[in-house]
Design brief:
With 222 residues, this protein is mainly alpha-helical.
């Protein structure tokens, strides 16, 4: 049963990644009719929301796009920064959605930010504690490791509404700014929805892995 859960988690994550990759690739080959780039769209949306202090910068990597609240920067991968595709603009405005959340003090975003130091520790210490617990036959240490993995799961669950809300804001901004026509707006929604599914898959995958650990080591408590 425990191994079946691991296999399920692996397939969920893999399928989500494949779906996102194929969707992004498809719509990165379709240019928007206004020929506006991700950088230009992001700058216009940020300025319209009184976020002129937020910079739009280019970074390396594939789909490495993110918003850094500490530096006040919308960071776009080269293809999305310079690209004028449906995917490029959709991703860029999604990251602007996070900047707007930051400005408005969106509750889930603030809560997630407060958990980052704990999650960074848990991501390293969780499986280390489990490994050491197995090595030294210490169930207490194993359960400490499982608890730390639960912290990561909580972080992922909180991330879901943050990402979904950012996508909703992005669609609203795209519609209002008229970057896309009606058909392109539908395509942009597909891009944003596919990205959200990766976070859903991550939550499901982590949950299955924690259940596997509980099933595996819970028996040893009996």
């Amino acid at each position: 049963m425990s191994y079946s859960l691991t296999i399920m988690a692996f397939f969920l994550t893999t399928l989500a990644q494949i779906f996102v990759s194929t969707t992004y690739k498809k719509y990165s080959n379709i240019k928007n009719t206004r020929n506006i780039t991700g950088k230009e769209a992001a700058r216009e949306i940020l300025d319209r929301n009184n976020l002129s202090d937020v910079k739009v910068v280019q970074i390396k990597g594939y789909l490495s796009d993110h918003y850094d609240p500490s530096a006040k920067e919308v960071r776009l991968s080269s293809s999305n920064y310079n690209g004028s595709s449906i995917a490029s603009v959709s991703v860029a405005i999604h990251e602007c959605g996070h900047a707007i959340q930051d400005k408005e003090g969106y509750t889930f975003m603030r809560f997630r930010a407060s958990l980052v130091p704990i999650v960074n520790f848990s991501s390293y210490a969780g499986y280390l504690a489990i490994f050491l617990g197995i090595l030294f036959s210490s169930l207490n240490l194993i359960w400490v490791g499982i608890f730390l993995e639960l912290v990561i799961l909580l972080f992922q669950i909180i991330t879901l509404p943050v990402e979904i809300d950012a996508s909703k804001r992005a669609l609203k901004e795209l519609d209002y700014a008229h970057f896309f026509n009606s058909e392109e707006l539908k395509q942009g929604k597909i891009v944003l929805t596919s990205a959200a599914l990766t976070y859903v898959a991550s939550v499901a995958s982590s949950l299955l892995e924690i259940l596997r650990l509980i099933l595996l080591f819970g028996k040893k408590d009996d």
